[in-house]
Amino acid sequence: MTVIWTTEAVVVRVVRYGERDAIxxxxxxxxxxxxxxxxxARSTGRLSAAARLCAQGTYVLYQGRGMGDVRxxxxxxxxxxxxxxxxKAAYAAxxxxxxxxxxxxxxxxxxxxxxxxxSVLDGLEADRVPADVLARAFELKVCAWLGVAPDWRRCxxxxxxxxxxxGELRYDPREGGLICGECVSAVASDVTRAWPVPRKIAxxxxxxxxxxxxxxxxxxxxxxxxxxxxxxxxxxxxxFAGVGGRARQVLDDIVAxxxxxxxxHRGDLHT
Length: 271
Fold this sequence. Notes:
By secondary structure, the protein is an alpha+beta fold. 37% of the residues lie in helices and 24% in strands. It has 9 helices and 10 strands. Strands 1-2-3-5-4 form a 5-stranded mixed barrel. The chain has a 3-stranded antiparallel beta sheet with strand order 7-6-8. A hairpin with a 4-residue loop joins strand 6 (169-172) and strand 7 (177-180). 37% of the residues are buried. The model is unreliable at 262-267 (pLDDT under 50).
């Protein structure tokens, strides 16, 4: 049985196939789809624009046995601003890789996956939120979709709410969650094994997990907070979701090569 269908989609992976063609992984409103864009690898091909990473538009797909074909595409967004900036391009490549490896195939994707991913790319273009914070927000949503996100407001051991408990917080890399000062003190090895983190990180993790990325309009976090978020979520995804990969390493290498930016903000986060 053959079907021709139309879908809104964003290109999250492009693999050249021979000299002319490209195999696309498309993130649609209901999940991932793989399709061949014939002539998509040629700079002057009819589908060349539709075969660019982060391209967004309406795709007409022909599905028979096996892999489908892209028959037509009307591209709404090429996202040139993302491709023309090395840092934005690195973040976009990483986020596309993350989406292509964690969002299920159609029709089983979480309802918000497509919308949140589009919002991340929109945010990268608009510069309204720091790129690393956008990445952390999407990573947290991926953790929630994959079932590897604890309640960041509570100690993963005793269940105490951090808002009502004093003392330091640490992230336990073995258990994949935050632990309170009392639980750290109870086990001597935790003092060296668990990572110290900023006190406000529990509230930030919780907010970014549930905030609509499209509504994030001001995020001012200290460098220490942002470093802790990056380290925690890289570990959470790698060790508890099995998602690592070269794209994150390339991104980290590019970010590490940049001059340090001034750190003028200290912890305000608004949606």
